[in-house]
Amino acid sequence: MGSASHAFFIARSSLWRVNLASLEKRLLKDENDMKILVRNLARNTTEEELHRLFSAHGTLQSCNLVLDKETGESKGFAFVEMPKVGEVKVAIKALNGMDLDGNKIRVKKAEDKAEK
């Protein structure tokens, strides 16, 4: 292989690695986009209620109501994960601003801690 061909191969390999890294980053970001933050929950809202509410809009991977470690009571927010981006968008659109147990809930994509 001549030096010009070798240099082209190295440049092309580097470009491929950069594109692969970019693709991996986008895929990881898409995974984070499937996590939903639900805020302004009433203190008596249960994880089971949230599960029923969100499962009406697609498949749930997880549903975690955040509880106070000392009292065991709800802190008024939760995280829901859904495996399909399309279902996440539908759930957010349908549920954001909805009245649940007397509170107008706020539903949005959860932000990655690194993005803050």
Automatic annotation (TrEMBL):
GO terms for molecular function: mRNA binding. It comes from the Bacteria. Keywords: RNA-binding. Residues 34-112 form the RRM domain. SUPFAM superfamilies: RNA-binding domain, RBD. PANTHER family: OS02G0815200 PROTEIN (PTHR48025), RRM DOMAIN-CONTAINING PROTEIN (PTHR48025:SF1). This is RNA recognition motif-containing protein.
